[in-house]
Amino acid sequence: MQQRDQQQVVDHGLTIEEVGRELRLFAEPPPAAKLDRACRPRDGIQSLSSCDVERSLAAFERAGRKGRVMKFVPASGAASRMFKALQSARGSGVRREVVARKAEERDEDAQAVVVFFEGIRRFAFFPSLAASMRNCGRDVEASLKEGDWGDILEFVLDGRGLGYAQTAKGLIEFHTTGDTARTAFEEHLVEAAAYVRDGSGVCRLHFTISPPHVDAFRTLLSKVRPGLERVFGVEYEVAFSTQKPSTDTIAADEENLPFRTDDGALLFRPGGHGSLIENLNDLFGDIVFVKNIDNVVPDSRKDESNRWKRILGGALVLTQERVHRHLAALDDEPHKAAVVEAALTFAHEEIGVDVPPEIAEGSLDEKRAFAVAELDKPIRACGMVKNEGEPGGGPFWVSDETGARTRQIVESAQVDVAVPEQKAILESSTHFNPVDLVCAVRDWRGHPFDLPSYVDSQTVFITEKSSRGRVLKALERPGLWNGGMANWITLFIEVPVSTSNPVKTVNDLLRSEHQPALERAA
Questions:
Q1: Which ranges in 333-378 belong to alpha helices (H)?
Q2: Average pLDDT, stretch 158-167?
Q3: By the 8 A CB rule, do 405 and 395 touch?
């Protein structure tokens, strides 16, 4: 590597060794995940009884009052994917009849545009759209009547209007509440008042955002914070962070050599949401909810969703208390066989740890060391919903190179579907991951875990991209809730499908769960 390259690597906060490791991964990608079987209720997924639910709610209430709880929301990036279909139909020449004809010919983007315009008045941002057009001397109703869809799309997507093609998803108006609209960011603040507040009414939230959107988030927070604090009787402590440049990854060319820009420099790209394990680690949190920015609902649907957040958090706390009791006992009485055997039994039966034969038949010291290693880890409780066709990773038992099985969230891209057995297991999954997590990130002595040390660095994603018309290979770090938490203690808990309401395309906002209650009733 040239001296100029080495300096660029150092300036980016990376090391020569890490860049070399990434380039080797391009040349020799890690093996696919080896699925043992899909997790199901009573086989990797817990279905809570009414008694479990009550105990979990009580446990969470205790933890919440003590100020142990906060919320972490990955909110990076613009909403360009959300408006992909609209982007395809842009231009002042776009007419209703032209798009409708393409839709009849089964053009999927055109079909999505037709749905958008059929429901345009039901979007929470419609009044803002109308106002932005009016400020420029245009009439949205007149454009709709004339079928001039291109004119309207320009104001939805471009900067002189709403600018939603470049706006962060968290800043898009999602829901109508009374006579006002709320952004996804505001909905997270409202939601936090129900289950993140402590005994003094303080709500702690952290949002990861991309640098271009920092000022806009701060401005919106300043605008809405006083009113929300007054209405809900809380005090918000909100912090923001961005992905660290040191988590970027090097791009490679088709020969698996460093991709170089036109001026000969190395090209580094953001490492995906798995990079956010560094941001999560920097919080020094305790009980941390992780939820995507787009998985929010209007007030009329919040009660059930928020209740299940408390249930999920309480189930985590109860498990954490049991784990900590075993670790404390192993520390207090390290040579007591009953203590060691109880910890091993708990690890196997309650947490799903495979105990190797050599450990089961080994010495007391070997058993104790194994139990401590398996229990002294961060813990995550992951809500799992029945699969009704939504995209997303699923819960599986995965075998490692030794044959030991662990619960993992696996994306389809991690599986070699060319292997019939693996494809069959993947397709047999009955549940999927809506990214509804709560994490316990302190050890039994109360010290924060070093979360990056629990990442499975081999579970990377390699994709093909382009730069100025040239093909490149991009590497994403292990996903935050995939390889990023692969070596955590993992609980999968079945939650109602009603708690999962992601907005992947703008038309998802037309679904009943994102519409005002009166309209749904009608």
A1: 337-351, 357-360, 364-375
A2: 93
A3: no
Reported as a single tens digit per residue, the pLDDT across 467-520 is 888 999 999 999 999 999 999 999 999 999 999 999 999 999 999 999 987 544
**SS3 assignment for 276-340:** HHHHHHHCCCCEEEEECCCCCCCHHHHHHHHHHHHHHHHHHHHHHHHHHHHHHHHHHCCCCHHHH
Count of CB atoms within 10 A of residue 194's CB?
A: 17
Domain layout of the chain by residue ranges: 3-77+169-511, 88-157
| pLDDT at residue number 522 | 41
- Examine the pLDDT at 466 and tell me if it is beyond 60: yes
On whether the CB atoms of residues 229 and 205 are closer than 8 A, the answer is: no
Which candidate, 179, 314, 252, places its Cα nearest to that of 24? 252
Task: Give the single-character DSSP code of 446.
Answer: S
Residue-wise pLDDT for 262-314, tens only, equals 999 999 999 999 999 999 999 999 999 999 999 999 999 999 999 999 999 99
What is the three-class DSSP state of 405? strand
Query: Which three-class secondary structure string do you get for 63-121?
Result: HHHCCCEEEEEECCCECHHHHHHHHHCCCCCCCHHHHHHHHHCCCHHHHHHHHHHHCHH
Q: Which of 309, 355, 349 is nearest to 42 (CA)?
A: 349
Specify whether the CB–CB gap between 79 and 167 falls below 8 A.
Answer: yes
What is the CATH code for 3-77+169-511?
A: 3.90.550
